[in-house]
Structures are given as C-alpha cells and as structure tokens.
C-alpha cells in the first residue's frame, strides 16, 4: 500500500471509528473505494471482519498489503480500546513520511533531469562521431574507453543503465532498512551523512516507542516495535541482547545504554521518564524533539544528494566538453593536413 493510501486509509478508518460507526460498515465502505487492487485486498479485510476477526488479524489476512508496524499497532489499539486514536496517529506518521519524500523528490528532480540529458547527449555524440568516422575513415574515441560508433553507444548506455539501476537498488535498500549492519555501520561513520542517518532513525524510534507505550504495549514489545521502526540494521542488530536484558527486568535505558549505539540525550531522557514513572509522556516530548531534528536531517540529506548530483553533472559536462574539443581538434588537424594547410 502506498504512503498516500496508507495515510488516507488510517485517517478515514480512525475518524469513523472515533465517531462510533460500526467497524463492519467502515470496512464495507473501504472495500468499495480505490483501485481494483485496493478493492480486492480491502474486500479480504472486510470479509474477515464480518466473520468476527479483529482488525489486525484481518489486515494480516491481506498478505503483505499492510506494513507490519500498522498491523501491530492496530492490534495494540484493539487490546487497549484505543484503535481510533492509534490509527489517527499512524495517519500523522504516514503523512510525515510522505512530506519528506515529496521534499526530497522535488529537490533532486531538476539536477537529475540535467544529468539524464547530459548522459543522452554524450551517447548521441558517440554514435554520431561513429557515423562520421565511417565516412571519413577516422575514428574518434571521445571517452577514451574504446566506445566508438553505434556499438560503442549501445555499450555506453548499457553501462550507464546498470550503474543507475545499482544506485537505485542501493538507495531503496537504505530506505527499507535492508542494508547489512556492517554496511550501515560504515555509512553511520561517514562525516555529515552518519549523524543525519542516526537522527532520522532515532526520531522514528522515539515516535514509535511513545505510541506503543501510550497504547498500552508492554516494555519488551514496545522496544521491539520501536527498533524495527528505525529500519536501520545498525540499531536492529542489538535486538536479541536488548530483549534478553528486558527479560531480566532491567530498565529500558540501562539495556539500551549497554549497546553503546544510542545518543546520550536520548538515553538520559529515557532514564528520566522511567525514574519519574512518566515514560509515555517523556517519550512523546522526546518524539516531538527528534521529529524536528529528523526533518532538519532529511533536508540536510536532500541538500547533500542534490549537491552530489549537481557536481556529477558539472564534472561530467566539463570532462565531455574537453574530450569533444580534443576530438574535433583531431578532425580539423587531419583535414588541414590533407589540404596541405
């Protein structure tokens, strides 16, 4: 389910349930809206609910259509009688993620378009010089890698396509939390990048922990859900040790502090909240603070990516202008030599 659809779904269902509308009627309406694919999946949820299953189990029956965090938080909401409130908070969460994504895409669209045009122009020049070379008998390798003519252009576009697809997979894996802990550890130590990734991950963790505790989830499951919400293997790799420590009835801040992976101010706030018996309220305040930091971190990362694309475009164009100039100097030198000039 897309972020936009998730946000709208959570908001509609949460608002309806809060207004006292029967849950079967709510999901009957949901199954009648959206695309054919959405109607099929939500029809499965509706049928399960009409058979008496709770919402979170009905969502699970829709296979992988709903994200695990939403399913789990819905289950907690049902157990504590706060389903509507939980869904409305989840709508805010997905709205925030959607806003960050839109800001990121808007910032990199123009430089990425320029990079694409530059790549296409270079490929065209390779093919064009190949055609000219067939008529003049001279070959000109403008890149210096042996890519000449139509075959060279095909190889060039193939290489660029593979590199671009690889970069896409890398970014997608980073956003979905599928990079290994060791690779994430390397990224977390990159100056400028690492602190921003850490802030964004802890912002998601603080928000999820606040929501889970507020909804009535026990400490072990609250921390587990919060860790999974970071989508960062650098933190999630400590899951077993953390769960083992919590099973020994240790405080959350103590167990997290042992990992040496979390920011000191985050741990200090946890300790204050646990000591005062106001962990949910403290986490909510901390969540708001880290959410603001997360927005700043997202803007900073967007600026880094945009600058990287701009620099790539500029370097690429300068290199190609230099190579093309050399190629044309060679063409005119040969021509003048033939004319005896």
Can you lay out the helices and strands and say which pair or pack?
Elements: H1 3-18, H2 23-30, H3 36-50, H4 55-61, H5 68-80, H6 83-136, H7 149-176, H8 181-188, H9 194-215, H10 219-229, H11 233-236, H12 239-247, H13 252-259, H14 264-276, H15 279-339
Query: Helix segment count?
Result: 15
- What structural category characterises the helix and strand content? mainly alpha
Number of domains: 2
The total count of strands amounts to 0
Overall form: elongated
Q: Between the first and last Cα atoms, what is the distance in angstroms?
A: 69 Å
Low-pLDDT stretches are: none
Give me the Rg, rounded: 27 Å
Helix content range of the residues, please? over 70%
Regarding quaternary structure, what we see is single chain
Listing every helix as H and every strand as E from the N terminus to the C terminus, the arrangement reads HHHHHHHHHHHHHHH
**Average pLDDT for all residues:** 81
Largest sheet: none
């Amino acid at each position: 389910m897309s972020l936009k659809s998730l946000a709208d779904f959570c908001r509609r269902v949460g608002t309806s349930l809060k207004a006292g509308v029967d849950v079967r009627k709510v999901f009957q309406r949901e199954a009648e809206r959206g695309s054919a694919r959405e109607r099929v999946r939500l029809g499965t949820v509706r049928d399960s609910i009409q058979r008496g299953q709770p919402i979170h189990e009905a969502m699970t029956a829709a296979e992988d259509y709903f994200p695990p965090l939403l399913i789990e938080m819905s289950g907690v909401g049902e157990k504590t009688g706060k389903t509507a409130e939980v869904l409305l908070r989840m709508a805010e969460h997905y709205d925030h993620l959607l806003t960050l994504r839109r800001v990121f895409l808007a910032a990199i669209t123009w430089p990425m378009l320029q990079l694409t045009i530059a790549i296409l122009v270079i490929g065209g020049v390779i093919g064009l010089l190949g055609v000219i070379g067939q008529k003049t008998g001279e070959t000109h390798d403008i890149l210096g890698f042996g890519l000449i003519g139509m075959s060279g252009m095909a190889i060039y576009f193939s290489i660029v396509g593979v590199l671009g697809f690889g970069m896409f997979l890398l970014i997608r894996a980073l956003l979905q939390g599928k990079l290994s802990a060791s690779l994430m550890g390397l990224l977390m130590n990159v100056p400028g990048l690492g602190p921003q990734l850490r802030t964004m991950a802890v912002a998601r963790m603080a928000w999820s922990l606040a929501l889970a505790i507020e909804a009535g989830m026990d400490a072990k499951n609250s921390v587990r859900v919060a860790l999974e919400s970071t989508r960062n293997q650098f933190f999630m790799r400590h899951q077993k040790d953390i769960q083992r420590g919590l099973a020994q009835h240790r405080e959350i801040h103590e167990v997290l502090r042992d990992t040496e992976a979390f920011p000191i101010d985050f741990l200090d706030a946890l300790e204050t909240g646990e000591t005062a018996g106001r962990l949910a309220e403290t986490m909510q305040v901390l969540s708001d603070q880290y959410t603001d930091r997360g927005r700043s971190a997202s803007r900073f990362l967007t600026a880094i990516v945009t600058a990287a694309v701009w620099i790539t475009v500029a370097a690429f164009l300068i290199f190609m202008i230099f190579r093309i100039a050399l190629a044309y100097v060679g063409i005119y030198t040969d021509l003048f030599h033939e004319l005896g000039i």
